[in-house]
Write a structure and sequence with these properties.
The complex is a heterotrimer of chains A (about 290), B (about 400) and C (about 325). By secondary structure, chain A is an all-alpha fold. Chain A is built from 11 helices and 2 strands; from the N terminus they run H-H-H-H-E-E-H-H-H-H-H-H-H. In chain A, strand 1 and strand 2 form a beta hairpin. In chain A, helix 1 packs parallel to helix 5, helix 1 packs antiparallel against helix 10 and helix 5 packs across helix 6. Classes of the chains: A mainly alpha (about 290), B alpha/beta (about 400), C mainly alpha (about 325). Chain A: InterPro entries: ABC_transp_permease, BCAA_transport_permease.
Chain lengths: ~290, ~400, ~325
């Protein structure tokens, strides 16, 4: 029994890491720009597809393809901000949400046209499995968890320690004051979208290496990403990290000990319960 | 007077010319295809639509369909139903109401097919179902509907007897059990297992989007089963096989996935697959294919620059069934007569799948056809056809008739 | 003057629709028109919560499913006449809406949107897995139809219901309740500060919109004769949102136009099957950026400009 609980926790960690990265991107965009960027999942999967393409069709080593995909992701984020979200920035927040839905359909359609409907798996050649007592962990999962931790730490350092990061925080806290302090408010949304999309692409690569990318997968992840946001608190960094990990492990435990058919229901019910008890989320600031 | 005769003669001549030219002019028979051409179901639907088009080209090149003294060339209209019930209903309404189509082929996916099947009985049309495996499609005894693919539990029964013979007592199931026909397959297996005192000890579910099966497998591992049975779409099932090995489960693995080598190797290594059984309809498999099957594979690959999916001949065969039935009934307009002729048909010589006749006919009273089932095993990087599974089409047909 | 014109426009639209079964020779278009009218009911409900109250609910199709399944199952198990079960469907849906609306309306904006989305996902998962009741993914066939499945008769039933419910929506919008809903959209805190319990009004809008959806679902089930969980997925909820936005949110004519668009547009785009998703998304993005007030809004602006011009001419 103890081994099972331990194994299920470890099972849930990898997918939890993916949730954290997706949620970090979403929470940054949301906290600073107030946009529910629904297309984030599909765009993230585009990054995974791109890595797959670079590795299999162009013959690049995985460790070369990943940085390229991250940079492309950053640029894609800029593009999305400029052509899709900037025109509706000052309109009602519903409009940005509808744009996000339209964008989701477009990106899903483009993914389908470019990469087909068969699922793809990014080949890594990592197939060792570590065994410790009765608990087994595939090598690849460990790398994914480590990569997620590194990216989260880098993101925290960026926001806490760099000038741009501090500017982003200043805008998030008080836009007018930030303008008075001389922060270049115009470039902030661009940077935010670039970084978020890069994080999303990293998540897409993890999904592609550990599992698979296929039509519709991205939408599934973005829904879970939003669930994490609600669980942790919209716009909260530590909330996204805690929420993602909790959701990943909850799903795994729910499937292992309660019901695999209803594991998503259980995850959502946990989310709704948290919301009822703490409407601002686990680590959100109270309104 | 003379003038009159002359005019009359001329008129008669003109008329005769007109009729002969009408005779000589080829008539056109438009048939419809409703299938998933985009979205998740397109893996099955698109090859089916391609297969129908290819069959139409072949039939046209060989002179078309002959009805009395008329010859019909086939014209195909294919609409995308995205495997969605509402879209499928709209697509079929468009085919029947607007395009005046009377024969509708394709139908890869169960939900969309069931939606159309629910009203086709009232239409002046004939519906030929392909890859959709949900059993209830042919339990309603709809006179103008037939299906080339056998229901999943027909295969499940054969698979059950095979697993029972192997002697494992406690079998754990993991699969897309939220999908009706996968659950029916497992029910059939269970019935056969019970006869020899074996049992199914777990039924774990994964959905179409799940790729992480470790929670379910960890649970199964703790139950110490003698074997596992994996039923579901290959995209998800491949991960079960891989992660079972990663979790250190070394037990016999049976499956019902119909995935190709390429589809599995994208996810797993060949070593992780070694020894896995796939218990499924023989479908289009080059190891066990007939002469027609090999020719079909070659022609399809040439025409579409891709290998045909193993289930695509279900749709190809539909058109040859339709051709034979129209020629036998001598009409293209009387759909009831054509539908009747389809059920009276012996297996046409041009079909690709290896059907098992019931009472000498291709379709039974329910409008259901049966193909052979086979046991395939993964050996050193590929699927090897090991043996035909014992399947009794006649007995299953009787069972199917009792359902509604 | 303006009011008479509006009234005449509505009358003309209704008369044209009423003549449709005579005008249409290809029954496929009648089939689509019936679907579109069902979607009018759906969209009018969605407009109440989304357009007037300003809360984007993504559970519309889920409620539609509850209506469809309750009408079907009540008929199947209790052998009630179809008329009765259709009338009961919105009531059953209202119960579910009360239970889900109470917790979700405690939160605002995007929280609300995502929680309702989760509810839609939960509804579908339960419909798929509670096989004893719903027959799962296989769905339920041979649902009884009214008047032996006559499409002409059903068209008139749905037309009358859609007209009545549009009228009802207009009455709600013009009432004091409607004004408070609009005020909530503009500034919810302000509404609270003058001593109005905003949550009651939000819950009212949410439940009424769910009842519209439930009725639409029941009408759908007895029209198609077949339902399965897939029909009531999130994609269809998004269609309802789309209908409101494209037509013009917070207007009465908007959902009517939007509903016909979401039914007919995909059919018109059938020629471009593989690009349909991209095209559909593109239309959505462009419409939101360049036409955020919807078709009705654009028309109004046009009419204002034209009539303004006309007045100057007259003067």
């Amino acid at each position: 029994m103890l081994i099972e609980i331990l194994q299920q926790t470890i099972n849930g960690l990898a997918i939890g890491g993916v949730y954290v990265l997706i949620a970090l991107g979403l929470t940054t965009v949301f906290g600073i720009l107030g946009i529910a960027h629904f297309a984030h999942g599909s765009v993230s999967m585009f990054g995974g597809y791109l890595t797959f393409f670079l590795v299999t069709s162009q013959g690049l080593p995985v460790l070369v393809a990943i940085p390229i995909a991250l940079v492309v992701g950053f640029l894609l984020g800029l593009l999305i901000e400029i052509i899709a979200y900037r025109p509706v920035r000052d309109a009602n927040h519903i409009n940005a949400f509808i744009v996000a839905l339209g964008l989701t359909m477009m990106v899903e359609g483009i993914n389908l046209q470019m990469f087909g409907h068969e699922q793809v798996v990014i080949p890594t050649g990592l197939s060792r499995v570590f065994r410790l007592g009765g608990v087994t962990v595939p090598e690849l999962r460990i790398y994914v968890i480590i990569a997620a931790i590194v990216l989260v730490a880098a993101m925290m350092l960026f926001v806490e320690r760099t000038k741009t990061g501090q500017a982003i925080r200043a805008v998030a806290e008080n836009r007018d004051a930030a303008i008075l302090m001389g922060v270049n408010v115009k470039s902030i949304p661009l940077i935010v979208f670039g970084i978020s999309t890069s994080l999303g692409v990293a998540a897409g690569i993890m999904v592609g290496a550990l599992f698979a990318i296929a039509p519709g997968i991205g939408e599934g992840f973005v829904v879970k990403g939003f669930a994490v946001l609600i669980l942790g608190g919209l716009g909260s960094f530590p909330g996204a990290i805690l929420g993602g990990t909790v959701l990943g492990i909850t799903e795994s435990i729910a499937a292992g000990f309660i019901s695999s058919a209803y594991k998503d229901v259980i995850a959502f019910v946990v989310m709704i319960l948290v919301l009822l008890i703490r409407p601002q989320g686990l680590l959100g600031r109270s309104p | 007077m003379f003038n009159r005769v002359k005019t009359g003669a001329l008129a008669a001549l003109a008329m005769a010319l007109a009729t002969t030219s009408a005779c000589a002019a080829e008539k056109k028979l438009t048939i419809g295809v409703a299938d998933a051409l985009t979205g998740g179901g397109a893996v099955y639907g698109l090859p089916q639509a391609n297969a129908v088009r290819m069959a139409a080209d072949e039939i046209n090149a060989a002179g078309g369909i002959k009805v009395g003294s008329d010859t019909y060339k086939i014209d195909v209209i294919a609409y995308d139903d995205k495997a969605n019930p509402t879209e499928a209903t709209n697509a079929v309404r468009k085919l029947i109401d607007r395009d005046g189509v009377k024969y509708i082929l394709g139908f890869c996916c169960s939900g969309s097919t069931s939606a159309v099947a629910s009203f086709i009985g009232n239409e002046n049309a004939v519906m030929l179902v392909g890859n959709a495996a949900e059993r209830s499609i042919t339990t309603k005894k709809i006179p103008n509907l037939v299906r080339t693919r056998p229901p999943a539990d027909f295969t499940g029964q054969a698979a059950g007897t095979f697993i029972a013979r192997k002697g494992q007592k406690r079998i754990a199931v993991i699969g897309a059990l939220d999908v009706g026909f996968y659950a029916q397959y497992v029910d059939s297996v269970e019935r056969e297992l019970k006869k020899v005192g074996s049992e199914i000890i777990a039924r774990e579910v994964f959905t179409l989007r799940d790729r992480d099966m470790t929670p379910q497998l960890t649970k199964i591992r703790a139950l110490n089963p003698d074997a596992i049975l994996v039923v579901g779409y290959v995209e998800s099932a491949a991960f079960v096989y891989r992660q079972a090995v990663e979790l250190g489960m070394v037990i016999p693995r049976y499956g019902f996935t119909s995935g190709s080598e390429e589809q599995f190797l994208r996810v797993t290594t060949s070593e992780q697959m070694e020894g896995v059984w796939d218990l499924r309809p023989t479908e289009l498999d080059l190891l066990s294919a007939s002469k027609n099957g090999i020719a079909y594979h070659a022609n399809y690959s040439k025409k579409y620059n891709a290998s045909p999916s193993p289930s695509s001949p279900y749709a190809y065969d539909q058109l040859y069934v339709l051709k034979a039935a129209i020629e036998a009934s001598g009409t293209v307009d009387d759909t009831a007569a054509v539908a009747k002729a389809i059920r009276a048909l012996a297996i046409p010589s041009q079909v690709v799948m290896q059907y098992q006749p019931v009472d000498g006919k291709m379709f039974d009273v329910n409008g259901q056809a049966y193909t052979a089932n086979g046991a395939f095993q993964w050996q050193k990087g590929k699927w090897v056809f090991v043996e035909e599974l014992p399947s009794d089409a006649k007995a299953y047909s009787v069972f199917l008739s009792t359902l509604n | 003057m303006n009011r008479t014109l509006t009234f005449l426009a509505w009358l003309a639209a209704f008369a044209t629709l009423a003549m449709l079964p005579q005008l249409i020779t290809v029954k496929y278009y009648l089939h689509l028109s019936i679907l579109a009218l069902i979607w009018v009911i759906m969209a009018q409900g969605q407009n109440l919560i989304q357009g007037y109250t300003g809360y984007v609910s993504i559970v519309g199709a889920g409620f539609m499913g509850i209506g469809a399944y309750s009408s079907t199952l009540l008929g199947l198990h209790l052998h009630l006449p179809t008329w009765v079960t259709i009338a009961m469907a919105p009531m059953v849906t209202a119960l579910f809406a009360l239970a889900t609306g109470y917790p979700s309306l405690r939160i605002k904006g995007h929280y609300f949107a995502i929680v309702t989305l989760a509810f839609n996902l939960i509804i579908v998962i339960v419909l798929v897995n509670y096989k004893e009741l719903t027959n799962g993914e296989t769905g339920i066939s041979n649902i009884p139809k009214l008047w032996g499945g006559s499409r002409d008769a059903y068209f008139y039933l749905v037309l009358l219901l859609a007209a009545f419910l549009t009228l009802l929506a207009a009455l709600i919008a013009r009432s004091r309740v409607g004004e408070i809903l609009l005020a909530i959209r503009q500034n919810e805190d302000l509404v609270g500060s003058i001593g109005i319990a905003a949550w009651k009004y939000k819950l009212f809008a949410f439940v009424v919109s769910a009842m519209y959806a439930g009725l639409a679902g029941a009408l759908y089930a007895h029209f198609q004769g077949f339902i399965n969980p897939e029909i009531f997925g999130v994609a269809q909820s998004l269609d309802a949102i789309l209908a409101v936005i494209l037509g013009g949110s917070g207007t009465i004519a908007g959902p009517v136009i939007g509903a016909f668009l979401v039914v007919f547009l995909p059919e018109l785009l059938r020629f471009a099957d593989s690009f349909r998703l991209i095209l559909y998304g593109l239309i959505l993005v462009l419409a939101t950026i360049f036409m955020p007030i919807g078709i009705v809004g654009v028309c109004k602006a046009l009419i204002c400009r034209l009539s303004g011009k006309g007045l100057r001419h007259g003067a």
